Amino acid sequence: MNEIKTMLSVAIEKKLTVNDSSDKHYSIDQAKTAIINYVTKDAEAITESNRYELYYFLLGKAEIIAQGWKLNYAKHIKDPFKTADTINAYIKNTYGV
Fold it and tell me: Does residue 4 contact residue 46 with C-beta atoms inside 8 Å?
């Protein structure tokens, strides 16, 4: 699972990186951690036969969350330390978890 988490981390970072960082007030590291924790918490065990299918399933889920949060919540953050809280709120409001 560590290999998948590393690849998810790279993909989420690319999704959340902005060209003009003057408006970015969120922590990408906190965002990556919160999203990865959510998408992998109930993931099935990795086997040789399911590792690609599992990776792409988790990748899709992570990118959808990252993009939705970035568009709807990220612009309202003024304190980078509140990034994880806003992601968790977004997930709860959107997915009911």
Answer: yes
Residue 96's region, left for phi above 0, alpha for psi from -120 to 50, else beta, is: left
Q: What is the spatial distance between Cα 56 and Cα 35, in angstroms, rounded to a whole number?
A: 15
- Candidates 78, 72, 77, 68; CA nearest to 38 is 68
Number of domains in the chain: 1
Do residues 66 and 17 make contact, with C-beta atoms less than 8 angstroms apart?
A: no
Which pair of structure tokens corresponds to residue 69?
């949060």
Global pTM value? 0.87
| pLDDT tens digits, one per residue of 48-75 | 888 899 999 999 999 999 999 999 888 8
The residue segments making up the domain with residue 23 are 2-95
Backbone phi and psi for residue 20, each to the nearest 5 degrees, phi listed first: -105, 100
CA–centroid distance for 90 within its chain: 11
| Residue pair 11/65 in contact by the 8 Å Cβ criterion | no
